[in-house]
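Input record (one chain):
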Amino acid sequence: MRIHVGTEIEAPRSRVWSEVEDIAHHVDWMSDAESIRFETEGHQGVGTRFRVKTRLGLLRTVDTMTVTEWVEGEAIGVEHSGAVRGTGRITLDDMGDRTSITWDEELRLPAWFGGRVGEIVAKPVLTRIWRKNLGKLKELLESRPAADDPSPSGPGDPTGTTPEEAPVEAPTEPPPTPGALIGHGRDGDIREFGPGKVIRTTHDGRDLSREKAVMKWAADHGYPVPRVYDHDDPTAIVMDRLDGPSMLEDLGAHPWRSRRHARLLGRLHLRLAEIEPPDFLEHVAPGNSLLHLDFHPENVILTPEGPRVIDWANAAAGPGDLDAAFTWVLLKTGHVGGNIV
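The corresponding structure, as predicted from the sequence alone:
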């Protein structure tokens, strides 16, 4: 299945490239992309590997991509190696004050999506979505004023302080600071935060203390969640970095494991229902179990040490059967956003 879309953007090629090369923020203008998570330390250049959670209507999947071509300022080519396979290429052509951008994809859909027959149905849908994506990129760039070039005050320190005048301080061990971006989504970012740790923040800066406390409570009761660390900022969560695919990603790559994963999901539900909720959680129905209320294969990470359940923002108290019922609704109808309480 071949798809070709393109448009012209009223911006020089250097400005368009600055958006296209920033893979982590493609979710800002790709409506079908929910989040991007990198599997390599580098986020640019040939060899960069990342996973994109995509949603097309009720269909949700994870697209694994590896950058196979990187021509600075001109083109990025990728190979799709997840459930959807094939190649893609975004090309920029300089037209003076304008830029022509083209997006070409050659894809093969998995058998469970209908194979060649599914491609006949999917092609016009994907073409329309990706044409709209380029339209969003065009609007983003054309509505944003061009940044002025910085004018340094002179060589060295822009404040004018020379190295000889700078005060000398005794070296101290600096606290960890957010490092390289690992994942970017519409809700927030995940960044490196020292060896083996990550820090999660939200775009709206909301308080995450409640979610952090729930995760600690679950861990204290032997439930498999990422270990959470103390951190002064209530708008951030510092936790163990999890290496491994989500259950959804593994299902996309190995659909014959569906029974195994279904059994694992059931066992995790039963274990969670045995945990009494902390007093600070609101009850959504009569019952005395800790509820997750966003429990689906995308929120179960399969690490070498075992499964880990993530994203506890919707946690509440109630009957364990309610959590299982809500998971059934999620699996049957697709993504349900927001909190049900």
